[in-house]
């Protein structure tokens, strides 16, 4: 039970970078430990896309860290799937990472989307913020988890995609709006609408230009991505021809590294004279 | 300040109170989209420029997605004017010597 997991080092880098950006100078050793533990428990598992499973909790943890959440919540994001999908027990988590992380992980694992999250939305609307049964951190974890799942959903069977999209549209996007997480609310809504209105009239079809931009925007910081994609979707919508849209998108794809650099640069710089 | 940044700044300075969207600035300056948005992001970062989403009434009435509008901040107007003046003015006066006197330079 107490043998120290011994796998994986390098790809906790993204989580650590995002966490340190939000909490400069703080000790992040617990996050490195959580990454190693998660990589160990998920060893050998793969996502539907064929990627190693650990890439999912890492992506969720990056989203959570970029939201500026505490170290315990970032650790819980890294470990959020070990209870359901691996042999890891709640006791092991508690011993290794303490009660707070263990409770958060258990909270996410047992959260019922329709019952509990609907209830959470109702309570927010009634103004009883503090009384959300599972606590705000668990809701944030669930939203980050769903955001990454929606982004990588194309590998799932169609029926399951639709079911998840429905849930996202009815419950999770409204919840994100209540929590004031506007960028996440927008992206969840877009991703869900794409699946729900697939091919139906009245919803702008995803053109090649849109798809190219979504892929290239992976270079941008997670939380900035939705804002810029929404902005460009607006511009694409008024460009008259496919050719004009293609040129707009191609130039933009070429400029994406520059934009990523401009957005990631730590302290606000100066315009060079 | 790069030439491209100057073009964007000049386009915004032309009517400082007018809100512009990215596509429009690309058309005004002739710069490609991949150049316009990174420059806007940097200008926003240093608070020369602020951006807002278009009001729902406006874009819903027009039947299109909302636009992101950019405008110089009051501070940005001043800084941008100063910066443009600096790059427009020659860096130093013509080198004297070789028989040139200030009056002969002016006369050229």
What distinguishing features does this structure have?
heterodimer, A: 273 residues, mainly alpha, 13 helices, 0% strand, globular, disordered N terminus, B: 108 residues, 3-stranded antiparallel beta sheet, 6 helices, 3 strands
Would you kindly provide a written description of the structure presented here, covering whatever features stand out?
The complex is a heterodimer of chains A (273) and B (108). Chain A contains 13 helices and no strands. Chain A has helices spanning 13-22, 29-41, 55-66, 71-78, 82-85, 90-110, 113-126, 136-151, 158-178, 182-196, 208-216, 222-238, 242-264. In chain A, helix 3 packs across helix 8 and helix 4 (71-78) packs across helix 6. Mean pLDDT of chain A is 84; it is low at 1-10 and 199-203. Chain B is built from six helices and three strands, in the order αβααβαβαα. In chain B, helix 1 packs across helix 2 (22-29) and helix 2 packs across helix 3. Chain A binds chain B through residues 227-228, 230-231, 233-235, 237-239, 248-249, 251-256, 258-259, 261-263, 265, 268-273, and chain B through 1-2, 5, 21-23, 32-35, 37-38, 41-43, 45-48, 59, 64-68, 83, 86-87.
Summarize the topology:
The complex is a heterodimer of chains A (about 270) and B (about 110).
Chain A: H1 13-22, H2 29-41, H3 55-66, H4 71-78, H5 82-85, H6 90-110, H7 113-126, H8 136-151, H9 158-178, H10 182-196, H11 208-216, H12 222-238, H13 242-264
Helix pairs in contact in A: 1-3, 2-4, 3-4, 3-8, 4-6, 6-8, 7-9, 8-9, 8-10, 9-10, 10-12, 11-12, 11-13
Chain B: H1 3-14, E1 20-21, H2 22-29, H3 33-45, E2 49-53, H4 56-62, E3 68-72, H5 74-88, H6 102-107
Antiparallel strand pairs in B: 1-3, 2-3
Helix pairs in contact in B: 1-2, 1-5, 2-3
